[in-house]
Design goal:
Layout: E1 6-11, H1 15-26, E2 31-34, H2 41-46, H3 48-67, H4 81-106, E3 109-111, E4 115-119, E5 122-125, E6 130-138, E7 142-144, E8 171-175, H5 179-190, E9 194-199, H6 210-222, E10 226-229, E11 233-238, E12 243-247, E13 257-260, E14 264-266, E15 299-301, H7 312-327, E16 341-343, E17 349-353, H8 356-362, E18 365-373, H9 376-381, E19 387-394, E20 400-406, H10 410-422, H11 427-431, E21 452-455
Parallel strand pairs: 1-2, 1-6, 2-3, 6-15, 8-9, 8-13, 9-10
Antiparallel strand pairs: 4-5, 5-6, 7-14, 11-12, 16-17, 17-20, 18-19, 18-21, 19-20
Helix pairs in contact: 1-4, 1-7, 3-4, 3-5
Length: 456
């Protein structure tokens, strides 16, 4: 490695790249990280972190409504988008500085420039320099996808721009059915925006447990979000006070902010990867093996740019495993098979493991345990919204195959449930665990009789 300028050159200072660079530097590697925008990547700058801050803000509407049931008398409440946006920007600035400080403390060098791969061990920077490295790690993430062929789509925004709107619109139309689309529908609705969610499929959140999604869709509708499935925008016109979306059903929606959240594509364009011999798939993702190594042995890739599992914690784990394996002297593989996840709608959806549909397709006998109830908090608040939990169990081995929760704190529960799931916990393990009372989570350890039994 002494023949190269660096032992590791990372392209992209997002979650995966920063973790890989910091850990590798901690092992004594000479590390440089090139970033053309801001350190922190999608998650910190225009993704998970600012989105969660907006989720918190959107929930105060319900908090104010519920307070009277508990004896509180509140004055008239008002919301100021500029104040929230400014506070959000201040927090992002703080986090970016923390990321930079941690990288520099580890000994990694941050290069504020665009980097293009020019060979198995060389990178050209936008400042004119060419540097060499024993290993190159591509961690450039993904970029919002806008479908072609929709007249007027240039009038729409994506998740990149939604955080920095100069003003909050009166109405919004969100196109998509995944995490980003559904979460922003909840955010805007909670902030007082008349919100329509449009998805061309049969039901939102494809791949999640269908019963849980049906319950969530009903709860979102009850909160005022209009959900139009089997629908799509065919054109976006220029209205008097904003874009006007026309649907394939023939309906024209009132002038609204139009946001597309129709997926993201790996950010590999013009990176020089194909010229360097790196194989990409049909959508531009870097093809990698289980060790995150590309078709060129010295070039690796982690995170969304590989299009394996596009979640921030996965990118972080992949980056850490890469550094441990290549520079730490110990082989570490990432298990992509069981990943807890949450959709930060209101109410939340938290999940880990198999859906009921998947379990029934892969196991001979499946028992499903369910609990649906009105949480204690909602009783005095006068809110009808219900909570739901499901345990999916292999009836032969008694192993818990999946757990799904809809309601307050579902994301927090999913994280903790991931631990026993990784340890192959059985239904008997859940049964012999003491409940914490009174909590909603106690339902997970007090379910005794299957609601449904599936047998082949």
């Amino acid at each position: 490695m002494a023949n190269f300028d660096y032992d590791l050159f990372v392209i992209g200072a997002g979650s995966g790249g920063v973790r890989a660079g910091r850990i590798a530097a901690g092992y004594g590697a000479r590390v440089a990280i090139a970033e053309e925008y801001r350190v922190g990547g999608t998650c910190v700058i225009r993704g998970c972190v600012p989105k969660k801050l907006l989720v918190y803000a959107s929930r105060f509407t319900s908090e104010f409504e519920d307070a009277s049931g508990f004896g509180w008398t509140l004055g008239e409440a008002s919301f100021d988008w500029t104040t929230l946006r400014t506070a959000k920007d201040r927090e992002i600035d703080r986090l970016e500085k923390a990321y930079v400080a941690n990288l520099e403390r580890s000994g990694a060098e941050i290069i504020r420039a665009r980097a293009v791969v020019t060979g198995p061990n060389s990178v050209r920077l936008s400042d004119g320099r060419t540097v060499t490295a024993a290993h190159i790690l591509v961690a450039t993430g993904a970029w919002p996808f806008l479908p072609a062929g929709v007249p007027g789509i240039e009038r729409a925004v994506t998740s990149n721009e939604i955080f920095d709107l100069p003003a909050l619109p009166e109405r919004a139309v969100i196109v998509g059915g995944g995490y980003i689309a559904v979460e922003f529908a909840g955010i805007l609705n909670g902030l007082g925006v008349e919100t329509t969610l449009i998805y061309r499929g049969e039901q939102i959140l494809r791949g999640f447990d269908r019963e849980m999604v049906d319950k969530l869709a009903a709860a979102l509708t009850h909160r005022g979000i209009r959900i139009l499935t089997r629908s799509d925008i065919v054109s976006i016109g220029d209205g008097d006070v904003g874009p006007v979306a026309t649907l394939n059903t023939g309906e024209s929606l009132p002038p609204s902010l139009v946001m597309y959240a129709t997926g993201r594509l790996p950010n590999t364009r013009d990176l020089g990867l194909e010229a360097a011999g790196v194989e990409l798939d049909a959508v531009g993702a870097v093809k990698v093996d289980a060790w995150s190594r590309s078709s060129v042995p010295s070039i690796y890739a982690v995170g969304d740019v590989t299009n394996r599992v596009n979640l921030t914690p996965v990118a972080i784990r992949e980056g850490h495993a890469f550094a441990d394996t290549v520079f730490g002297g110990r082989e570490v593989l990432v298990d992509h098979g069981l990943i807890p996840t949450a959709v930060f709608t209101t109410p939340e959806l938290g999940t880990v493991g198999m859906t009921e549909e998947r379990a029934c397709a892969t196991h001979e006998a499946v028992d499903v345990y369910k609990a649906e109830f009105r949480p204690m908090r909602n009783t005095l608040a006068g809110r009808d919204e219900r909570m739901m939990m499901k345990l999916i169990v292999d009836a032969i081995s008694d192993r818990v195959l999946g757990v799904h929760v809809m309601g307050e704190g579902a994301g927090e529960m999913a994280q903790l449930l991931g631990i026993p799931m990784m340890m192959n916990a059985t239904k008997a393990d859940f049964d012999r665990t003491m409940a914490v009372h009174p909590t909603a989570a106690e339902e997970l350890v007090t379910l005794r009789t299957p609601s449904v039994k599936h047998r082949r």
